[in-house]
Every structure is written in structure tokens, then in C-alpha cells.
Amino acid sequence: MKQNKNPSKTIMKKEDILADYRLASLSRNLSIIGRREVLTGKAKFGIFGDGKEIIQIALAKQFRNGDWRSGYYRDQTWMMAMGLYNPLEFFHQLYGNTDREINPGSAGRVFNNHFSVPNINPDGSWLDLTKQKNSSSDISPTAGQMPRLLGLAYASKLFRQNKDLHQFKTLSLKGNEVAFGSIGDASTSEGHFWETMNAAGVLQVPMAISVYDDGYGISVPKKYQTTKGSISEILKGFESEKDKPGIRIFKGKGWDYQGLIELYENGIAICREEHTPVLFHIEEVTQPQGHSTSGSHERYKNEERLKWEEEFDPIKKMKEWILESGIATAEELEKLSSEAEEEAKDARKKGWEMFQNPIKVERDALVKIINDRSCRCTEEAREDSVENYTEDLKKVLSPIRKDNFVTARKILRNVCSSCLKSDNLKEELQGWLKRNYKDASDSYDSFLYNETSTSVLNVKPVAPVYSANSPEVPGRQILRDNYDKLFTKYPKLVTFGEDTGGIGGVNQSLEGLQKKFGELRITDTGIREATILGQGIGLALRGMRPIAEIQYLDYLMYALQLLSDDLATTHYRTAGSMVAPLIISTRGHRLEGIWHSGSPMSMLINSVRGVYVCAPRDMTRAAGFYNTLLEGNDPAIVIEPLNGYRLKEIMPDNIGEFRLQLGIPEVFIQGTDLTVVTYGSTVKVAAEAVKQLALHDISVELIDIQTLVPFDKNRMILESIRKTNRILFLDEDVPGGTTAYMMQEVLEKQSGWQYLDSPPKTLTGKEHRPAYTTDGDYFSKPSAEDIFDTIYAMMKEAVPEKY
Ligand SMILES: Cc1ncc(C[n+]2csc(CCOP(=O)(O)OP(=O)(O)O)c2C)c(N)n1
Ligand SMILES: [Mg+2]
Q1: Number of C-alpha atoms within 13 angstroms, CB side, residue 436?
Q2: Is residue 4 scored above 70 in pLDDT?
Q3: Cα distance from N-terminal residue to C-terminal residue, the chain
Q4: Pocket lining for ligand 1, CB < 6 angstroms
């Protein structure tokens, strides 16, 4: 374990030291004022970087253009030191300012001190990532930043080792970029931390993680968090040895300005040059204001600890060091401190005004509309009066938009529709609400999906082409030959997962391709679904085109937290300024047994809005989706049907070229009596039932929706029920799962209810997980007979004299 032995190569100039001191003071003042803003009710919640200032100033000195950060909510000083954050933005984040121009890091969508730097232009094109300091976008779940950090670092390895990538000069300078991470001591208790450290050691990637060890995770001290109370102690087994590469571990102290500068200089140089992962365990870190504005640390820190924190406050310590070394006088430092305090105060004032002004302008416009119109026609009770509501609104000292909207909507109930135009308040209010709702919706609802021309929804479809000579082959071969074309066409395409490399996947859909394209493009990974996903997110953020393989849909659950919290929200939480076009390839539906046959589709679609979900019924359709997705810039999941790898399909002549549009169902079988809506493996089961029903004079229209998200963009299902007037929603998910979702889409959103002559129905798997063996499957999931009987009963109920 390295102590900071090597003296710094950088000769520190007085002006730099004083600038650092000033920045630390500025950051501290922001934290102090920020807390006060929350406690006085101006901001909702605050979490700050006090106590971590000096570490981050040292860290920032090693961060170069092209490097990446994946950190957490303590990093305000680091971000400011890199010029990526400033006091005004600090307050914009704190108040939740939704103006993307002035609050680009979060646009009011996430807690304060969650940072990000765009990786695309507003038109969706990629920025030159080598010319800027990059930060992935922070998330609140502890250690959630770790798996993504692995991917950011892994990208450097690929950019360095794969010479074909050297042409992408705006993405990487031959992989010389370090991925910097930060994490709190308590968060190292999470599985994500350990999985990431192990994977980084295995992969040997330039990942530099700093642990800010302030001894607590909110109120819980280290003795409950970490074996032996020291993360560096217990990581010793990961340490690099001669001919056994692992992780390099460094230790420093959170108040030791000079020591930290040297420490990071040495550690990052090794990381950058050798592509060895490094961990900096920074001990003796303080937290002067406690964890967050949700509580006070006097509740759980004893007198002795509080006294120690005061004594070892990093800014105080830095001051002492400056004075002892004779670098500056007490007066000089005092001047800097008061300047910093003034700057922070000014930023607060300005930030508050910038937050409040547009709301007040909106309020004034509303009040003017109310005052200018005389209609008070249906007003009855005093407390309900238009005047009362308006006066109450005017009295709110620090209004938020909600105040304006509540007032407008309540008044709307109290005015009539019949006053003459000049008096008519109703119409005016409705107009105001419509305009301002649109604006609020733009602030809060936009950018769940890519809205630029690079959206995958804009990719033009290409039909598969068949000729007399098109051969019939097992489904897996369609995928394999398709991948062969894709890996040739897209140099940035990589895929990785369990058994993906050497044997080409458990279902051989990549058979022989590692040999052809090399290990840097098609590779095995450890059994570590969360970091497979993170590896993909990090690569995607850096402009690569990853396909992360999750062996079975059932095991996507290990990665679901990140899929939901990180990938699905990336575009939304950065207000459209970052994309992570990761494709997740997995397989599900019909196999046998509790953990190999799942179709937990509702769990998936309801937790990953922001990620498209494709559920192809066969491998031709799956290939068509991959081909489309690689032409756009959105994250998506493709669930291949598990029983389809050996089933025969006709190989399209334009393999690798044909593309399937997302959100466009296919009428698989035409019919007139009843519509069945389903997807994935169930399409074939339903087709069998439809054939049998035809023998009983029942004509069923079978629709394969193909993608669950987006859902039937052109309302094809509505067209079908206009004709059949009856509908059955069918799948292998639990009762009330994805069939309920589909039912809502069709009956409520598409207003399909009005065309129904029979009650709508769902047919699903059982509530329990599907059991083992063919019989287990038969009695757990809808069979052709179940479908037959359900539809027959619906028809009998509708036309009893016929059936
Ligand atoms: C998965 C998850 N569990 C719990 C929380 C609530 N939480 C927020 S911060 C925190 C403590 C983190 O402590 P540490 O990692 O030491 O960082 P520090 O705040 O001390 O810098 C907890 C439990 C969370 N955000 N995410
Ligand atoms: Mg801590």
C-alpha cells in the first residue's frame, strides 16, 4: 500500500495555492448558505460537499480533457475546480430551476449537487468528447455510480487496444483517458462496489476511485459498515503483485493539501499510463454540517468526534499549513475568505432572483387576467371567492408555480361560461392554463426518449428480402449471420456477457465470431449482471455501440436497479443532454422452471420507461430490431424468444440490412370475429389456437405487437377492433401484468372501448412462477387449448345460438 512518498513534480506557485484556498472557502460558504436556504424553506432539500473540499481540489488537478467522472453528491468543489460548475449553478440546482440554459446539469429534475456534462449537441450529434472534461450524470442510489464507472474506464481500454478505433478522434485519444470515480465510505458496503472492483481488477482498466472516508453513512458509523473498519485493509487481497495485476491502493488524509496533491499525481499517472485500476482511500475526512439537511449530526456524533472534526477541518488545516510555511499572511487569507463569502452571498441572491422572477411574472400575468375580467358569476361562498384566492396568491412571499396553478384551477370552478367576451374570465383562464401547462410539461415531462433526428423512431424500415433460393436455417443462424454483417459494418460495435465470447453464446448466436473479430469486440465476462450493464452504460456514454448480453431475462433482475435508476433516466435527468444508446440483448419466455422461463415483462416495462422494449417472436424479427437500433441513439432491450434458436426460419437475402420499425405491430393472421393481441413466444402458441378455432368457424385476427414500448404508434389495434368488436389480451406474464398495460393502451389511450360488443378479456400465465417440465409449463402458462377455450367462450357468450 502506497503512502505518499514521492514528492510532487509540480512546483506549487503561491498564486495557485491561494486560488485553491479561495475556492475551498467559496465552496464551504456555498454549503453553509445552501443549508440555510433549506432550513428557511426556500429550497426543498440540500446535500453538500463540506469537509471534502481539499481532496477534490487535489483530484481535479489530475483531470484532463477527455477524462470522465462518475461520482456522487459530495463533489461540488471538484466540479468547480474543473470549471464545470459555479456558485450560481449551485443555487439553480438547489432551488430546482428548470431553465436548461442556466441549469444544464440537472434542469431541476434531480436533487442538488448531482452533476452532468452533455455528450451530445441539442441536435443529437455527438460532441467532441476529447476537448472537454466529461462527467456522467450522478444518481442518488448509493454505489449506483460504480458499474457505470467500470464502463467508462473499459472504453479507454478498447480505444487504446483496438487500433480500428483510433480513427474516432473526437471520442478518445487512443484510450489515454482516466475514468475518475468517487464514493462515500459507507457506500462501499454495497454489492455494486465489490462487483466493480473485482471486474476492474480482472479487466485492468484505467479506473481511479476515491473513497471519502468520513466514518459515517448518514448516522451509521463504520463499525457497522466495513469489516475491520477500513476499506483499504480489506481490499488488500485485490492489490497488484509482481506478475499478478490487480488494483493499486493508495492512502491519504482528507486535510493534507500537499500530501493529497502528491498522492493523486502519482496514483493517476500510474492509472493513466499502465491502465491499472487505482483506489485512493482518503481517511480523516470531516462532515462539518452533517449528512444533509434532513437531520443534524449532533444526534449521532459524540463530543469527542465533533471536536476532532473541528480541529481537522480541511480548510482550517490548509490555512495552518499556509501560515506555517510562510506562503501567505493571515491578512491575505482573511481577505480571500471574505471575498469568497461575498461571492457565495451574491450568487445566492442572484440565483434566488433568477428562480423567483419567472414565477412572479407568471403570477402577475395570472392576476392581471383575473383583475381585467369582471365575471364572478357562480361564486357563492366567501371563502371560495375569486378575490380571496387572488389575494391569497398575491400574499405568497416565495411563490412556486404550483401556487399559480392551484389558484387558477380553483377560480375556474367559480366562473361562468356565458359572460360576454370582455368580461369572460373562464376562456381567459383556460387559455392561461393551457399555455402555462405546456411550458410546465416541457420543464418536467420532456426528454424521456430521444427527441432529435437521431431517435431510433426515425429510422426507416427495410423489409427482409426473400427469393427462391433463400435457405431455411435454425433461428440462431439468422442472428449469427446478422451479427457477422453488423460487426463488419460498425467498428464501434462490441458485445460482452457470460459465455458470449469463446463459445459464441449459450445458444450459439455468435458462433465463431470472436475468432473472426477478436476478443476486444466479442468477449466473455464474469457472472456479474449489474456491472455488465454498467459496462454497457459507460461505453455507450463514450460513443461506443455496446450490446450487453444478459444470459436470461430472469437474471436481468440483478441489473434491474441500474437499468431503472441509471440507464432509463439518463436522457430524462440530463434534460436531453446525454445519451447512452446501450442495447441489452437477452432471452426469455418459454423454457422450463422457475428461473429459466420467466416473462416478468410488467416488472420490466414498468421500471424502465425511457428504454425501448422489443419482444420479437422470432430471430428474424430480433435481427431486424438490432439493425434498427444500431442506426439510432436510444437505449433498448431486445428479448429473444428462448425457444426460437433451433426453430427453422428463412434466411433473408439482405441479412444485416433489413430493419424493423419500433412501435409497429404486425397482423400475423387476419380475421373478423375477435382480435388477439400478444407478443413474443406466445404468438406461435396463439397461431396454433387460431388454426383450431377456424375449424369451428371462428375467425380470429392475431396481432403481434412486436414492441411493448413504444406501443402501437399508429393505432393498428384500434383498426382491428373496429372490425371484430372483440378483444383478448394474451401473454405469459402474471395476471394484471403486461396484459393490463396493453388493455389500458388500447381501451383507454386509443379509446378502443367504444368499439367493443363483448367485455374485453385477458389471458395470462399463472400468478406463480412457471414450474419445471413440459407439464409444468403446460399448466403454468397459456396453452393453445386455453386460448381456444377462452375465445370459444367469448364467442359463445356473444352469439349463443351459433356456438
Ligand atoms: C441504495 C440506497 N440506500 C440508501 C440511500 C440513502 N442514503 C443516502 S446517502 C447515504 C449514506 C451514504 O454514506 P457514505 O457512502 O459514507 O457517503 P457520505 O454521505 O458519508 O459522503 C444513505 C444511506 C440511498 N441513497 N441509496
Ligand atoms: Mg461517509
Answers
A1: 22
A2: no
A3: 81
A4: 74, 140-142, 184-187, 212, 214, 216-218, 291
